[in-house]
Structures are given as structure tokens and as C-alpha cells.
Amino acid sequence: MSLPILVAILLPGLLFLGLSLLWLLGLVPGERGIARSSKGVALLSWILFSIETIPILRPLAAPLRLDYGDWFASGHAHFGLSLSVDPESLPMLWLAALLTGLVASFSVRYLHRDRGFLRFFSLLNLFTFGAYLVAAAGSLDVLTVGWELVGITSVLLIGFFQLRPEPVHNAARVFAYYRIADVFLIASVLLSHLWFGTARLDALSSGEVLSKGLDGTGRIHWIALFLILAACGKSSIGPFFGWLPRAMEGPTPSSAIFYGAISVHLGAFLLLRVQPLLLASGPATLLLIVLGAGSAFLGTLLHRSSCDAKTSLSYATQSQIGLIFVEIGLGWVWIPMLHIVGHSIVRTAQFLRAPSMLHDHHHVHAAAGGRLTPTGGHLEALFPRGLQIWLYRIAIDGGVYDTLLNRFLLRPIVAVARSLAVLEPSAPAVSGASSGNRSTPEHQP
Amino acid sequence: MAPAPERGTDPHRDLIHAVEHAAHLLPSQGPIGVFIHHNTLHAFQSHPFESAVLEASTLFNAQPFLSEAAYQAALASGRILAEDIRHVVHQEPDAVLLPGGLTRRQLHERILTTGVRSVPSPLLPWHLEEGDWLQRFRGDLPQESVLALTLSNDSPRTLWELAVRWTPKATPAEPASWRRPAEAIRASRGVDLDAVVHPLLIRLTSAYLDQGVSYWPMPDRDRGFLKAVAQVLSQPGLPDPVGLTGLRRRFLTLASENLSAPEVLHQAITELGIHPGDSADLITAELLALPGWAGMVRQLEEHPELAPHVRLRCSLLEFVAVRLVITGVATRNVLGGANAWRSIPPITRQTTDLSAQAAVFDALQVLGVGTESLRSLPPKSIGLLVQEILSFGELERRRLLHLAYERRHERLVLLPLRHHLRGSLPAHPGERLSAQFIFCIDDREESIRRALEETDPSVDTYGAAGFFGCAIDYIGIDDAGAVSLCPVVVKPAHAVGEAPVSGHDDLHERRRRLRRVWSSWTRSSRISSGTLFRGFASTLLLGALSLFPLVLRILSPLAHARLIRWLNARFLPEPRTELRFMRDDSESKEATQSLFQGFTTTEMADRVAGVLGPAGLRTGHARLVIVLGHGSTSLNNPHESAYDCGACGGRTGGPNARLFARMANHPEVRSKLADRGIRIPDDTWFIGGYHDTCSDDIDLFDLENLPLSHRGDLARVRETLDRARALSALERTRRFQAAHGISEPATALRHVQGRSEHLGEPRPEYGHSTNAVAFVGRRETTRGLFLDRRAFLISYDKDVDPEGRSLAAILGAVVPVCGGINLEYYFSTVDNERYGCGTKLPHNVTGLLGVMNGMQGDLRTGLTWQMVEIHEPVRILFIVENTPERALATFRANPLLWELLENRWIRLATVDAASGEIRMYRGEGRFEAVDGSEVDLPIVRSSSEYHLNRMDHLPIVRIQPREPQCA
User: Phi and psi dihedrals of A195, rounded to 5?
Assistant: First the structure.
């Protein structure tokens, strides 16, 4: 019973290794081979997950824990390789396999003849492997590995069009957000080992740990806080709000699978996995709800004023993920789970249709007889006019979030870096702005 | 804002003039929902092509021709021949360079045929120090040198030293003064001012122009851009964006001062330290820094009716004003004062002599001028030689290579045509034709016309501009509103509507209601998925429901399309409809739009005669005449309209074809036509139809009205059409890599249908890609030639046009249309990033107006890389079947045509079908006979035999199904 799951999880990782190896050996496989292997792997994984899902959804079935010994041990802290297949992880695995398979099928045509074809599919497979690891992780240790793989593939796909400055600039920016958030995840892993002697997800939710953590020391608050911040980074919530539109520089199918579906929901999924621990900490729960609600509100505000297809979708995604955070904070389990699944599917479909927006709008407009009902009269009508314009000003500047960040965090850092550069005469000048120089056009093959 | 006061009395006349001037240089592409092909360098059309592309390349920082490497590759593959280069070089002025006999032409020819070793200048030191440049000479030099000297015993190092000695020191160019603050600041401070100004400006402009993407439109758009922006940006209590401290205060002042737009602009320009009288350069440079958005503002200002949904007050002047006010704030942030950039000294570009020395070194090797000969030459001659080498720069080389490239194309087209005409033309069957087809002139219809003729030799095909003379304002039963179906330069004077036939009104009503329900369901589910609370419900509860269509759509686009068709057929009532196009009196104009409702019989006869007459369809029509308009359906394609019919203004030509057929069937029209010498037999029936050039589907209209006697003919025609469209689809698939290996017409047809339905397909079809020729003449002249879907075919019979009136009308319509298409493809190919819009993969639809890269970029204009990747950029070659004198006179009589021809934006040849004589226009009223025999005309059995499994451009051949007779 454990073997099929393990195979299904490893398949995309192995395919990534295979494709990379061929590339390193200078044997670039043809588009057809890449496409068939990627689609085949996704289909096989999906079938295996589907087979496993049926028995495990039976209410009395015990979750399946798979332990493969220690990854490494340091002192008495054991970093174990363990997977957990249970009613929470299986739907996520199933969904990830399904959507990556669909996106792979879509991309075969979409990226046909693009010079980054192999790169795209290699990264897509590596991402899938990472997402499976996060979903099936039995401990925070394993989850972190998957988490990092998802992060790095996400960044590399945002910067997919390497020859233009904007994608690279935005990819670097998203990378920075990810790294800062990752620090919190890694800190929580280390603290769990230090304080509770384990980072196993089942152990972290057990009464023993919870009572130990609440033991007047406030330890559980710290771990809960760090986990929430880590999740915020992945899901573009709260302090990490607003990077999602920057991620739209990549090709449309990667926007769909990462920021409409799987990657962006992994933050919420992490919280769902450690929900008992979060709920044990009152302040953390409150914070979770506040951050979620705030981001949901800001997300919908920005969505309302966005006037391009992808930004509009990314803020819409953001507002629903904010709501999912709130749902988790309220202690619900099945509602956020269903919300993740339903929302992922809807957004994937919408992202993949985004380039057809004109076509679709034309048809809807014609079918309505040329008279579309005007929008913008619901939430807005509740506010007085002056406030509306004020809110619009906030929306125009992306929630003023980047402005605050740039002004009060980045600018001081850059200033310090500049002043330190004086000590190092050979160092290149630090420049905060992206270069606007246009390179000569390079024709793609 | 008050409307701009009259010119002349205005104190801001200079400013307004400067904005107007800059506006000419902006891309003139309207909202992308209706894509009109036009000459990308329209603003330069009054200059000769060869100098205009260079001028524009400096101004727009763009490429004028293909890269030198591309031409060299063409030379290597035989696409350019050495004789083309010789010929082209010999059109240029000559001079003796060396007393030994080297002339400038020889120099140029040698350098072009051998090719320069071009290396980016930063890499030169490496090649000299680490590479083998000083160890050995180039390995690809021709055996025989011009001066009959060889380099075999020579030393590269010595030659290099001589080259260095003889190459004059470059004089540093006079530093150009800064045109705009961003340039000065980037050079002096390393700060990119555009990265500060553009995100905000793009956000504001896109929000202002938005046609319905955002749920919540920008407040107070009706007050104009300047006021709306000032109101938003002056909101209190929020931090200014980084690099724009003081932005709010600036706009607050603006909002309170209540100045007019020219006054604001005046203020902003003065603030930047420029006298308003000298503002032209600044304004031009600032507008060209973000040309896409500025151009869209301009288009909507000049043609508000282009806005697809929301008409807005647009003013380029207000846009410039806002841009410069923000730029002023940004400049002050960096430099402390808005005019401080003026005092930053221009920076002299560091010049290196190395690349000039390397060029001389390379050329000496190519010419075979070794150290010995250099030493023996008088210094004056060497100086002259070096100067000639240096003045033969990269752009000049590319210009000549391009001319050679076009010359070869010209020969590859004209010589086979000459062969063809000198051989025996396929005999016209004596009996009555089984059917006649009138297509649009579109190059994409060439393959299906040829396939029809191959399938059934007793059919004839004709080409006429795809609106078939019917310039109409049309509204169909499923349409939102009326649209103009005619070339953009024509303003339709007649309205035609589609309406259910009597008795089908309630069906129509039910259809409308169902479509409304579908529309509001689709729209509200889309909107609700984005909002907060409704989104919660819809994504949580209904999200999974969208899984099934998504899976089906992606895994099997055709099955999804079939399902939708089945659902429509099952549930959506389909009323029979007819066109309302009859008008009795000539006066009834619809009051509001001043359009005539429909046509009188005389007007109808005019239109029918206008198409049939020039095409030579005057008598002896077949029993069925099929008139096919065209368009293209695809998904994942914001540029969908660019694939539609150019003669219908970027829309689909089905209604025009339907209307034309109905008119031509009208008995009164026929009797009026008979008076004009067009005698349509009583048993001839016209059928209108629609050809989808992407899926190769063909619909025929109004078949209910077809007389019973013609049902049999129709069945036969249908069969022929079905076979031909599959053959044509097969021919199209040869260009698609993804369709590699398809050899069955039916499979090919399914393949192209799948393309049209695929959500992720970036190349639904290749559009006008590869277009290169427009033939104006009788089909008999080109029938049987495999033209590879690269030629517009316009039917014109000179025998019925002794006065050349039809020729004038035809050329007047098709030259600008075909020329515009061709030039847009040319420029989007030679510089896909600047003139085109790059790869479509990162494109993001903005405001239903256009596409930009990522989330905040400039609006991209021109064609996508996926549209032009197989295009061969040559100027279109018009081949007119008439005398050179007549053709020239016709072009001369029309200023627009004359401008295009005399400035060589198009090429022209005339052909005499009887003698096979072809004459090529060489400018200044001079024609030159085309002869030569280096290109022959092979004969093949069928098109598919010739093209199967071949992806590249194919030379013209003659298709002869039966055993070749004496050729």
C-alpha cells in the first residue's frame, strides 16, 4: 500500500533528474518526448493517488504513516524522512497531480517552439515533486524540502523570459519575499526540535506537545507565529501581501498552476496541517484571522480596480486565500479544504482562459444584446463618495503596500549598503532601480 | 477642462503644435479587438523606403532590415545568389579605388559575398590576444583575390599592425545634449527615472482607458484624464510612491488652480527648464519612451468611436501634461530641482578605434591585399581604400544585402511566371463551367482556390476584395450592435440588418432570451469569483463544477467544441433569417446615423457590376456561383481580429458575401445588369458563404431559397468544396511543426479544426505570414501555378477595361490594403521587439484595448513573434496584367499609390500574358524587361505531391495533373 504512493510522489522528481541529466549530457530531447513523459508521469501519479484516495476516505481508516528513517541527526534532534497519507493530504496530492497534468497538456501547445520548452517542463516537474512533498510530508523537515523546491521553481518561472529586465527584476523581488518567509519556517522547524524534540506533524498536534508548549513558557506562541508568517510568505498574505501580481511575468500556464492553484495555496495547507497547534495559541489564532481578513479585504479592493486580466485574477486569488486563512483560524477543517480545492480549479480555468478574454468578453457582450449591467455598485455604494476616491487612490498604488515597504524598509537598507560600499572601493555601485536599457532584439527560434 | 481653444489665437500654439508633431510618430494601432493592418512606418511614407527605414531606426532605436547574419545565412543557403549581389552593387555609384583596378563595386561585392567577420567590439581584444586572429588568416576566404595577390606567405600580425597604422583615429563625436531628464539622470546618477514614472503612469492610463475589465472604473472619467488623475492623486493621508515625494502636493496645487491642460503642460515644461517654444524634442522623446500607451490615447482622441465599450474623452495633450508633471516631481526627487537636469553636462561617448581597425584588417584579408601590396601602394591610395572600407558600414551592407534578397525573390517569382506564359496555358474547357467561386483576394485563399481547380478542372475561381463592393453597416441577430463591414478608409452609407423570417419571430425571441440568461450567468459567475463574499460561495461550492469543462477543453478541444455545438443545437433555437437590404425610395435615411436603410435596385446593380465587371465575369456564368467571405476563429489570441478580413475592416466578411449573392439573384438587378453588358443566365444562382481560414470550415447561406433544380448542382459543389478545403488544410499543416507527419487531408482538417478550438494554441494559423506578391490579372494567367499561399490574387480582365477605369478602382483599393499588410509583416519581422509585439506567451490583456508584457508594461503594438516567425520580409511585388504605360498612368493618377510606388514601399511589375513579356518597374518612370533562365519551372502532378513533408518556402512550380504535354 505504501509503495504506489511513494512511486507517485517520486516520479516527477525522477523525471526532472532525467531531463536535467540529458541536458547536461548535451542530449536535448525533442518536444514530443518531453511532452509525453511529463503528461505520462502526471497521469500515472494521478491514477495512483486516485486509487489510494478511495480506501483512505473511508471514515474509519487510519492515516498512513510512512517512515524511512532519519535524514540526518544532530545530537538528540532527529530529522526524519516521514510521509503521512491521510484525508487531508490525499485530496491535495490528487488535486496537484490533476492540475499539473492539465497544465502540462496545455503547455505542450502553448510553449511549442519556444526556446525554453525543456526548461519549462523540467521546472514544472520539479515543482510537482516539491508540491507532492509538501502535501504528503509527515514532518516539518520533509515539508521544508518540498517548500523550498516549490519556491525556487516558482522564482525561476517568473523569470522565465530572461532577456527582458522586468521578469528578472520581479523574480528577484519575489525570491526575496520567499527567503524571508522561509527563515520563519526553518526557525519553527529548529525550535520544534529544540523545544519538543520532534517536528513530526502528528506529534506537533498531539496533546503532549500542546500541553508542554502552553506550559507558561509561551513556546507554542512563538512556533505558531513563525508558522503563520511562513505561510503568509507563500500565500502572499499579511506582511507579505502584494507580490502576487509581480509573479504574472511568467508564461500563462505557470501563472495558472503556481498562483492560481497549487503553490499559492500551500501556505494555507501548511496551516491546516498544524491547525491544532495554532488553535492552541489564542494570540496566534487572532493574528491569523486578522491577517487573513485584512488581506481578503485589500485583495478584493485591488481586484475591483485592476484593469488587466492577470493582475485582476491575482488579486481575486488573494482575497479568497485571505478568507481561507480566516476559515482555518476559525477552527474549521473541511470548509478550508473544500475551499482550497474548489478555488484552485476555478482559478486554473480562469488563468488558462485569460488570453482569450477579448474573445469571451465579445461573446458575453453580444449575447447580452450589447447591454452589460454596470458593475461597481455593491460594496462601493456603502461608502461615501470622498472615501471611495480615497480607497481608489489606495488601489491605484497597489494598496500602498509596496510604497510603504520601499520607503521604510528597502530604501534604508539600500542607503546603508551604499554607505558601506564606500569602504569597498572596487564594489560596483548599488542601484535600487532596474535597468531600463533595451537590449537588441534577439529572435527566438 | 475647457476644450482646447482655436489654433492661432492660442498662446500655447507652439506646445500644441509640438504635441501634434510628436503624435505622428506614435503607433497608429487602435484597440486590438479590431485590428487594421497598416504600414508601421506610415509617418515616413513620404520618404524613400531605403532612407526612411534608416531614419526610423535611429528615431525608434529599431532595426531597419534583417540582421547581417540572417542575410549571410540566406547567401549560404542559396536564397541569395552571388549574381544578385553583383547586380545590386552595380546599381550603386562606382569609383576607382586602387590604380591596380580595384573599384568600389568590386570592394563591396567582395565584402558582401565573403561576409564580414563581425564580432561585438567588447570581444575584439579576446580574439586578438587569446584567439587566433593574429595567428592565421580567415579560413573562409575565396581562393582568388581581386588583386591577384595571395596571402599564403603573409603574416597576419604584420597585416594587423599595418591596419592599425593606416586606420585613422576616430574623432570623438560631438556629445549630443540630453533630450529628456531620464537620459541625463541615467547617465549621471545611474537611476532609471522611467522605472519611477512608468508604473504609476501606466496604472493611471490603463485605469482611465479601461473598457470593462475592472469591476470599479476610475472615478470621474468624464472630466478628462488630467482632472481625474489630479483628483485621485491629491487624496490625503497616504505616502507618496518612492521617488515621487511631493507628488500629492503637486497635484493638489494643480487641482486647486484649475488650469487648462495646455496651461498645465506649459507650467510643467517651464518647470523642467525648457522654453515652451523649444519643447518639441522633449515632448517627442518623452512620448516615444512609452509609445504604446501614448499612441492608444491618440487613437481614441482622434477616433473616439474605436473605443469598444466606453467612449472617453481622450487627449494626448493631457497625457503629456500628466507625464511631464510626474517627471518633474521625479526629477526633483533625484536632483533637487526639476530643471537641474539641464545643467548636467552631456557625456562624451568613449570611442575605441579597435572596431574600425578590425574592420580594415578583415576587409584587407577579404580583398587579398597583403602586407607586400600595402607597402607597395602609394599612401594616398591606401588612405582612400581604408576610408572606403570604413564607410561601408554594417547598415549599408545590410541595405545592399536586403536589395539582393528582394532581387532573388523577384526573379524566383517572375521568371517562372514568364516560363509559364511562354508554355501552353491550360486550355479552357469549351463547355459550360460546373461552378464559379468568388473568393477574397487574400493570400490565404490561394491554396483553396488551387485545390478547387485541381479537384474539378471545370470550375473557375475569382478574387475580389472581400467586402464584395458592399460597404455596409451590419447588425446580425446575435450581434450587440452594428459594425462597419468595409475597408477602414470607406465610410459605409448603407445599413443592412439580419432579421428572422416571418413566422420565426418567437423562435428568435426565445433564442435572445436564452442567450441573455447564458450571458448573465457567465458574467456573474466570472464577476462573483473575484469579489469577496460571492467569491467565497462560488469558489467553495461551485468551484469543482468547472472541473469537467476544463478537463474536456484541454484534453480534447474538438470534443468540447462538438459538445457545445450539440448543446446549442439541442437547446438554442435557430430561427431562419434573411437580410433586410431592400429599399424603395432613395431618400429614406435613418435620421440618427444618416445611413440609408438597404439599397435600391440601381445601387445593388452598381455593386454587383463593380465586382463582376472588372473580374471579367460578364457572360456565360455557371449554374452556381459561390461567393465566399472569410474570417478566422481562435482562442488564446488577443490578436484574433488580425486574422480576419482586412477588406472588411478587420472583421468577418460572411454577411457581405451573403448580401452580394442575394443582390445578384435579384431579377430587377439582373435586368439592370444586362443593360450594362453583364448578362447573367436565368439559370445561374448565386450562393453566399463564409470560409473560416483557421478551421477551414465553410458555411453556405440561404440555401432554403435555392431552386429545386439546383439541388443536384449544390451537392456536387459541396463535395468539391469539402475535398478542396481538406486539401487546403493539408497544405497549411505543412508549415506547422506540431502537425508533422500528417499526410491525409481528413486528418489535416481535424488538425486545423483543433487549432481553432485549442485554449493554449499560440499559432491558430499563420495569417498573412509569407505574403510577398499581389497579382492583378486574370486567373488564367496564374492558374496551375503553385504560389504557396504567398500571393494576393485579384481578378482583373484588361480586355473589358479599355479605359483603365476598373484598374484604377482596383489598384486604389488593393494597393493600400495589401501594401499595409505586407509592410506591417515586414517591420514586425525585422524588429519584432520594437515594431512588433514580441512573443505572445507573456502577453496580458489590458482594458480590452491591447496587450502588455507582465503586469505593468507598455501597450504592445504590431504583430506577435508567433505570427511572423516564418515570414520572409520582402516588399510586396505587385504584378499587373496590363501595359507598363497603363499601369504607370494609373499609379500616377492616385497620389497615395504614387507615393507608395515612387518611394519604393512596394514593387511593381507588369505582365503581358500573350507574349509572356514581364517588365519590372525601376523608378522614375522606367521599366526594365525581365529575362534570364536561371530559374526554371518544374512540373509536378499535384500540389500535395509537391508540398508534403516540406516546411520551408517552396519555389513556384506548375501543377499539371495529366501527363505533361510538350511544355
Answer: -90, -40
